[in-house]
Design brief:
Length: 105
């Protein structure tokens, strides 16, 4: 899988190439999930699901194939929920339209 250039990503990558945790910033809550609890990821260009031992992170948008590649390398350090107006903004490159975290039971 080809990875997007750093400037066109809609997420933050660790500077040293591998992050120790993933920070997920929602409007009302912030989650810090250690990569040591990461199990697997799956997805398409429109949706990526990252499964951790305790939580599931669901990302929806466009051009997310490169996100899946970055998650596989555990290099993503931060995902932030887009503003409500982001879905109306036209831009090139990967875009996040929705981000959610659910606790595994």
């Amino acid at each position: 899988m080809a990875s997007a250039s750093a400037s066109s990503r809609a997420w933050r990558i660790a500077e040293n190439g591998r992050a120790t945790s993933l920070v997920v910033q929602l409007r009302q809550r912030v989650y810090v999930l250690p990569w040591s609890l990461f199990l697997y990821a799956e997805g398409t260009d429109a949706e990526v699901r990252a499964q951790f031992h305790t939580h599931t992170v669901l990302v929806q948008g466009a051009g997310l194939t490169s996100l899946l590649s970055d998650v596989a390398g555990q290099s993503v350090s931060q995902l932030a929920e887009p503003d409500r107006t982001a879905k109306f903004t036209q831009s090139t490159g990967p875009q996040l339209s929705a981000l959610s975290v659910s606790e595994n039971k």
